[in-house]
Amino acid sequence: MKNLILSAAALTLAGSMALADAHSVVRLGTEGAYPPYNFINDAGEVDGFERELGDELCARAELTCEWVTNEWDSIIPNLVSGNYDAIIAGMSITDERKEVIDFSEAYTQPDPSAYLAMGDVDLSNAIIAAQASTIQAAHVAGMEGATLLEFATPDETIAAVKAGEADAVLADKAFLEPIAESDAELSFTGEDVLIGGGIGLGVRQSDTELRDKFTAAIQSMKADGTLNELIVKWLPGSATF
Prior knowledge:
Layout: H1 8-14, E1 26-30, E2 33-34, E3 38-40, E4 46-47, H2 49-60, E5 65-69, H3 75-80, E6 86-87, H4 95-98, E7 101-103, E8 112-117, E9 127-131, H5 135-141, E10 147-151, H6 154-162, E11 168-172, H7 173-182, E12 187-194, E13 202-204, H8 208-224, H9 226-234
Helix pairs in contact: 2-8
C-alpha cells in the first residue's frame, strides 16, 4: 500500500477542481501495474481485485464509470487536476494524503507487508528495495542500519533483488506471494510488518457527494458479504471484514 509526497502545486490545485458529479461519466484512475490489486490483462484491459470491486461499486452507486491508467508517481496530482475523478489503486489511507485529497471508507483492512529475498537476510543492515513514494519505502527509510534503494515500478524492485543490487524487497505480501510461488530462487525472510491504515478510493476534497456514494456502496458490500468474497478470491490470506 502506497504513500506519495505531494508538491505545493498539487496542494494549490486541490481547492479549485470541479465536482466529479459534474461529469456524465465517473473516471476511475488506477496504476494497472500492481497485481493482484490492479493489472493489465492479455486483452489490454484493467483487471484484478480493484477492477471487479470498482465495477461493482459503480453499479451499486448507480454511476457510469470508465477506467483510466496513470503512472503511480503522478496519480494524486492528476486526480487533483481533473484527469479522472477517483483513485482506486491499492492506495493506503494516510494523514499525509488527507491533507490533499479525501477518501472513501476503507475497502481492505491494513494488509501485511513482507520481505522477499534470495535467501535468509539480516535485515538490520541490508540494502532493501521498495517502490518509490510508498509506505514501504518510508518504513525502510526509518529502519536503523538498513539502506533504502527506490525504484519507479514494483517489477524493478524484484529485478534488483534478482540482480544482486538489493538484498531484499519490501512490498505488500499479496503482491509478493505469487512471485515467491513461481520463482524457486526467491523466498520470504524476516517478519511481516503491518503499515498503513487500509485501502480506500481517493477523491478530490470537493467531491463529498461522490465520496459518500462510494462509501455507501462499500458498506453495502460489507453488509452482504460480497466484499469479503472478493478479498478471499483476489487477496487470499488478507484479513476480511
